[in-house]
Amino acid sequence: MKKAISVANTRPGLWQDTNVTYAQVPGWLGHSTLNLELTVLRQFEGQPHALPVIFWFGGGGWMTVDHNVHLPNLVDFVRAGYVVVSVQYRNSNQAVWPAQLIDAKAAIRYIKAHAEKYQIDPSRVALMGESAGGHLASMAAVTNGQKQFDVGDYLDQSSDIQLAIPWYGVVNPLSAKQNSASDDFDFVYRNLLGAKPEDHPELVAQADPHTFINDQTIPFLILHGSDDEVVPVEDSRKLYDDLISHGVDADYYVLEGGQHMDELFMQPEVVKIIVAFLNHHLKE
Fold first, then answer.
1. H or E segment at 272?
2. Which pLDDT value is given to residue 38?
3. pLDDT (tens digit per residue) in 51-82
4. How high is the pLDDT of residue 47?
5. 20 to 30 A from 32, CA-CA: which of 50, 58, 228, 266?
6. Is position 8 within any domain?
7. 6 within domain boundaries
């Protein structure tokens, strides 16, 4: 068969810029250098306006981090008009908290410093993540303006963001450990803090979003599965209640029958909810 067709140019093509080093931190027991990387998903150059950006933080119990594993699922948000930046952060074998938060803020500053290259609007930034990455998104959001977590390069850039979307994110490490339906992952909280959470409330407090919430906290969209056996769904409800009590704009969705890291969160219906929330707060 031979045929000539006329194709309408109805959507931009997409680029993937993979494994971009955004920071260098101490590696192997402080004796080497560890490159921290991110991957950018974006539309072809030449768009009429700079686009809002979503930073994505994957899960893995702070024990393992693969910032590229969810890229196919994140394309929906690029098609919806967002640049997506998927971020590697140090696991708990490499550094204890708050190293992960420091990494998140370093990635934000790096992308803002290269806003023109990636055609992003640095004043329209969302953070989204799952499980341990959801915790990181929440913590980065509630610590807007907390300069002690800005360490490294591009300190002339602000790490402040405009909204957070945690998926089944850990909230309070001690509560997550004690109230989980499974004790298979109890060790991850000690590894994250560098000590048993039961014995060190001061460390728990520094890794708990509740510590930092105030009436200036940015909007949250919280997603959690009703049947999550790893991270207690009740912890997300308490986070939502705390946000609301401070007058923060927050939405909370429980996915009926949803389990931890469930593919239900990747379904078009959920993507539509997320995009609507993003558009409401970030689209011009």
1. helix 268-282
2. 98
3. 999 999 999 999 999 999 999 999 999 999 99
4. 84
5. 58
6. no
7. no
Low-confidence ranges of the chain (pLDDT < 70): 284
- Compute CA distances 197 → 96, 140, 149, whole Å: 13, 21, 21
Instruction: Report how many domains make up the chain.
Output: 1
pTM (global) more than 0.85? yes
Rounded distance between C-alpha atoms, residue 149 and residue 143, angstroms: 8
Take residue 228 and report the two structure tokens written for it. Answer: 């999550």
Q: Taking CA 124 as the corner, what is the angle to CA 238 and CA 263, rounded to the nearest 5 degrees?
A: 50
Write the CA distances from 167 to 129, 164, 211, 225, integer angstroms.
6, 10, 20, 9
DSSP-assigned letters across all residues of 78-147? HHTT-EEEEE----TTT--TTHHHHHHHHHHHHHHHTHHHHTEEEEEEEEEEETHHHHHHHHHHHTTT-G
Nearest to 270 by CA among 142, 80, 50, 120: 80
Domain holding 34: CATH number?
A: 3.40.50.1820
Domain containing 196 equals 14-282
Structure tokens at 149: 């977590």
**pLDDT at position 64, please?**
93
Question: Distances in Å between the alpha carbon of 96 and those of 188, 226, 251, 264?
Answer: 11, 30, 31, 31
For residue 192, the model assigns a pLDDT of 96
- The radius of gyration of the chain from alpha carbons, rounded to an integer in Å, stands at 19
